[in-house]
Structure to design on (295 residues):
């Protein structure tokens, strides 16, 4: 009888311990899941290059900018569409629009080889951070790229006096071998990091068969802005491979995480090809993609 009672007590104690432990196990599981979820991040802000909706900007720039803000874009990157980098608006007018909508013009593509000071003055008045050279065209030799790098340094130094930064935006031609080197490497190595930043057009690097993640890692801290656009899988005319974000082969979740760790600050949507729909519909779809993307 005593043995039976002893066994009963031992069994009861074991059951009690099990009952106490089980709820802790079940409570711990959600915490583990929550920890996993907390490692995923989303972009707090992203922008759009206004060239993506150039036709709409030409008709009514204010209405177009209002619509883009409604899609969720918090940043704009401009270009000179024939009315100047402020699209015919005075600096105070443009700045008031940005303030009203809660967005900012972080950069503008422009002709940095002409009227630089006048453009810099306008940019400084509205709080633009970067003036960007969007195109130099394929040069005939590496020496010509070295000369261009020297001029970039001079432009960057001039913009510093206005409180602005200078950057160069690539196309595919700087990632095509010339005299045994990539011209982009020459531009990277021959420019002063204190004077010249770079905007990586991820699409153009990708279609030139350069892995954007590898190139970013090769020059940490040099790329502060990037153009975000996708490319359909395969080969062919690089001008005809553009698709909406998420419909191509570029792994943006991975790239965004890595590039932020390497100094990337601004993620700017650019859409140049529209397989379906209008430019504004593409702008909205791309904004929805980035807003929901976890990295």
């Amino acid at each position: 009888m005593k043995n039976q009672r002893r066994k009963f007590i031992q069994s009861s104690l074991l059951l009690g311990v099990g009952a106490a432990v089980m709820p802790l196990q079940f409570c711990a599981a959600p915490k583990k899941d929550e920890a996993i979820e907390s490692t995923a991040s989303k972009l707090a802000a992203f922008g759009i290059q206004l060239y993506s909706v150039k036709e709409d900007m030409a008709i009514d720039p204010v209405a177009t900018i209002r619509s883009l803000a409604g899609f969720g874009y918090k940043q704009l990157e401009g270009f000179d569409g024939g009315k100047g980098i402020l699209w015919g608006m005075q600096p105070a007018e443009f700045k008031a629009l940005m303030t009203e909508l809660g967005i900012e013009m972080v950069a503008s593509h422009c002709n940095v080889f002409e009227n630089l000071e006048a453009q810099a003055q306008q940019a400084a008045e509205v709080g633009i951070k970067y003036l960007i050279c969007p195109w130099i065209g394929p040069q005939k030799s590496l020496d010509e790229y070295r000369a261009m790098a020297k001029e970039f340094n001079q432009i960057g130094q001039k913009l510093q006096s206005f409180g602005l930064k200078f950057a160069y935006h690539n196309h595919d031609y700087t990632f095509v071998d010339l005299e045994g080197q990539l011209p982009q490497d020459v531009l990277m190595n021959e420019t002063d990091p204190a004077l010249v930043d770079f905007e990586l057009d991820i699409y153009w690097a990708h279609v030139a068969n350069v892995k954007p993640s590898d190139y970013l890692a090769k020059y940490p801290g040099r790329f502060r802005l990037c153009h975000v656009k996708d490319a359909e899988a395969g080969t062919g005319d690089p001008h005809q491979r553009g698709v909406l974000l998420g419909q191509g082969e570029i792994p943006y979740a991975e790239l965004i995480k890595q590039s932020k760790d390497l100094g990337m600050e601004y993620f700017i949507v650019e859409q140049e090809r529209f397989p379906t729909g209008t430019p504004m519909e593409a702008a909205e779809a791309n904004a929805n993609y980035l807003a929901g993307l976890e990295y």
User: Anything to note?
Assistant: The two ends are 65 Å apart (CA to CA). Confidence is low (pLDDT under 50) at residues 1-37.
